[in-house]
């Protein structure tokens, strides 16, 4: 298992780990794997994180993490391109 210190992480990575940790400490500290899904905003951009995490009062572990950025839809008017 690779261990990464928060000081070694990118700013967005630190923000995500802090968010998960803040939610993880509300759960029982028994090492159970919990499903996690939450939206958040980082530097004005909306993201959604989905993963599984486990917290045993000492270590926060996560796996299967997927981070998606908000989809932007742009409508073009075809009559403007003739």
Describe the structure.
The chain has one domain. 17% of the residues lie in helices and 37% in strands. It has one helix and three strands. β2 and β3 form a beta hairpin. Strands 1-2-3 form a three-stranded antiparallel beta sheet, covered by helices on one side. The chain is elongated and about 60 Å long. It has 82 residues and is α+β, with helices and mostly antiparallel strands.
Helix content: 10-25%
Number of alpha- plus pi-helical segments: 1
Oligomer: single chain
Q: Roughly how many Å is the radius of gyration?
A: 18 Å
Distance linking N and C termini: 58 Å
The largest sheet has its strands arranged as 1-2-3
Shape verdict: elongated
Write a brief structural summary.
By secondary structure, the chain is an alpha+beta fold. It is 17% helix and 37% strand. The chain has one helix at 11-24, and strands spanning 34-42, 45-55, 60-69.
Blueprint (SSEs and pairs):
Layout: H1 11-24, E1 34-42, E2 45-55, E3 60-69
List the defining traits of the structure above.
single chain, 82 residues, alpha+beta
């Amino acid at each position: 298992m690779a261990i990464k210190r928060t000081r070694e992480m990118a700013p967005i990575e630190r923000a995500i780990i802090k968010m998960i940790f803040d939610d993880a400490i509300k759960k029982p500290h028994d090492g159970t794997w919990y499903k996690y899904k939450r939206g958040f905003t980082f530097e004005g951009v909306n993201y959604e994180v989905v993963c599984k995490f486990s917290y045993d009062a000492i270590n926060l572990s996560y796996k299967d993490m997927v981070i998606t950025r908000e989809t932007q839809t742009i409508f073009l008017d075809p009559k403007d391109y003739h």
